[in-house]
Structures are given as C-alpha cells and as structure tokens.
C-alpha cells in the first residue's frame, strides 16, 4: 500500500483538502499519513519584561492540536482510508520532507489557498516551497472559495 503525506494546518479550507486527499487515496489505494507542524514558539509571549515562556500555554496548544489531528484521522478512517497522524514542532518544510522520506511516501498532498504575489513575498508559501524542493511528487488541491 502506498503512503500519502498530508500536511494540515487546521484552516477552514481543510475540508476541501481532506476530501480531495481521501478521494485521491482511494484512487491510488493509499494510506494517509497526516502531519501537523506546530511552531517552536507556541508558549512564548512578549510583554513589559520582554519575551517570556509559558509552558502551560504550549502544552495546552499541543494537546488541542493533537485532539484535532485525532479527529481528522477518525474522519478519514470512517471514509474507508487507512490513516495515521503525527505532530512535530519546527520548520514545516524540513519536517514534512523528512516525514515523507521516513514514510517512503509516494505523494505529498498539499492545499493551495489561491494567494500569490505580495502574499508570497511577505508570508511565503509552504506549498510553493515543497513543490520546488520535494523529490516526491506533490499533488496540489485548490482549497480557495
């Protein structure tokens, strides 16, 4: 069975991405390997005394994100597609590519929000970075409204 790595960010557009990934997984007889990459600075805040770290904030955020991943995994399984999930913290591009290599993924499935131009200049586009740098084929599903 092939593996498909599916990075998720819990955006509103996830529904289209998940539906497209499920359909594609069924077509190619694949398992979906969900990954969510959380930033390293979740528990940090800036205030009068500069940067402060709040471990309980980070723990609560990670716990909530793991619960969301588990819900997505159950949704995918309920549609007849094998699924597993993973949460890591760090640089999204590097961790997604590492996970895809680790899982010997046949594909990475990403969403496109339909933004371009100045948005990419200031924010960057993970989908664009992955399509440029991945040795694994990347399927891009349009998720904009």
Automatic annotation (TrEMBL):
It comes from Chryseobacterium lacus. Coiled coil: none annotated. The lineage of its organism: Bacteria, Pseudomonadati, Bacteroidota, Flavobacteriia, Flavobacteriales. GO terms for cellular component: cytoplasm. The keyword Cytoplasm applies. Residues 1-142 form the UspA domain. SUPFAM superfamilies: Adenine nucleotide alpha hydrolases-like. It is found in: Cytoplasm. Its main location: cytoplasm. Keywords: Cytoplasm. The keyword Plastid does not apply. This is Universal stress protein. InterPro entries: Rossmann-like_a/b/a_fold, Universal_stress_UspA, UspA.
């Amino acid at each position: 069975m092939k593996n498909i790595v599916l990075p998720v960010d819990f955006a509103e557009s996830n529904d289209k991405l998940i539906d497209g990934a499920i359909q594609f997984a069924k077509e190619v007889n694949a398992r979906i390997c969900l990954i969510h990459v959380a930033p390293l600075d979740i528990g940090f805040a800036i205030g009068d005394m500069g940067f402060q770290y709040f471990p309980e904030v980070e723990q609560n955020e990670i716990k909530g994100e793991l619960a969301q991943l588990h819900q997505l995994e159950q949704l995918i399984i309920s549609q007849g597609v094998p699924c597993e999930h993973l949460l890591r913290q760090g640089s999204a591009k590097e961790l997604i590519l590492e996970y895809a290599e680790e899982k010997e993924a046949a594909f990475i499935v990403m969403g496109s929000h339909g933004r371009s131009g100045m948005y990419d200049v200031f924010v960057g586009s993970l989908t664009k970075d992955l399509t440029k740098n991945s040795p694994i084929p990347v399927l891009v599903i349009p998720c904009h409204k």
